[in-house]
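Researcher: Predict the fold of S1 RNA binding domain protein.
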Amino acid sequence: MTNKEEKSTFAEVFKQWEQSIHEEPELRKDQVVEGKIVSVDNDYVYVAIEGLKQEGRIPRGDFDEAPERGNYVSAIVKRKESQDSGCILSKKEADQRKGWEIVKEAFKNGYQVTGRLVNEIKGKGYIVNVEGVELFLPASQLSYKFKEGETFKNKELEFKIIELNDRTRSGVVSRKKLLDEVNEEKWDALLLKLKVGDKVKAIVSKIASFGVFVK
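Model: Structure tokens for S1 RNA binding domain protein follow.
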């Protein structure tokens, strides 16, 4: 190769490299991006995507709380549109993806979780939102009596996750199991303090043919 050819090849490589550093990264479907909220209307929240000269829009319904300009959000690319109109993003799916990892960790380690009752399935139970993931709460596992006039909607309670399916991203929660474990821990602690002959105060909670329940 002559010196002239070497210089020509080097110039071409240098030009390609120079072009590449000025090119914007290609957005991919299902890619997670960060964005800063720049404007809001009745239908969409518009964000400036970090590292790109593009805007994306997120459906207003993806936000549980009123979005504010200047706040940063994570979202998933759903559909890329023209250079001018940017792309459609989903904050809801990004929250669910992140939430699913938190839910899996809680189930694996036996941690309790905080959930919000969002819907009732008559005669069967409730749908509970845990970290953006909707899980099922059987009516038999609620162990909570609503006060007169109190609505279940958006009621926050503590639960234990008792079933989880990674393939369908579904699961079952129980408040009863959590309370049973708490009561068992309290009972074990109480047994360590008590000895035969001790006098204790108790409230009769139920009377049965075989005995009396106290607490």
